[in-house]
What does this fold into?
Amino acid sequence: MKFRFALASAVLSATLLSPLCLHAQEDTPAAPQQAAPIAPASAQGKAPSETATWTTDQLITATVHQAWLLSGKNEATFFQMVTQLADLSAKNRSLQLPETEEAGRAVGEMIKTAAKKDTDQLLYAVVDAAVRKVGKPL
It folds into this structure.
């Protein structure tokens, strides 16, 4: 639980999301078919967008910027996406994410730093790289 809270605070900081809002491309992705089930309470008191839905395939192939648009520019929903990708990455790599505040903060900072460098890179690649660094073998 501590991991997710720290991850949320790091990922949701305005320094990550501000560049995404200013990105020149404003196309919205195609309408998704499934809603993500994760709803973190730590997303700065903001509820996820109730209309935000996406498929796993859409999320895996979305750039950082496209995921931000797909989230409806909602920080809590964007955090859901990052959490879903982190869980998927850990599962695919047979890793367990440590449930510590320190690990959550580390992953969040890695994601924030990498995402800011290039908003046109795949969000999954950013999250996967962070998960590989902090995940422990099962």
Observations:
- DSSP finds seven helices and two strands in the chain.
- The two ends are 18 Å apart (CA to CA).
- Residues 2-21+55-137 form one domain.
- The CA atoms of residues 48 and 76 lie 5 Å apart.
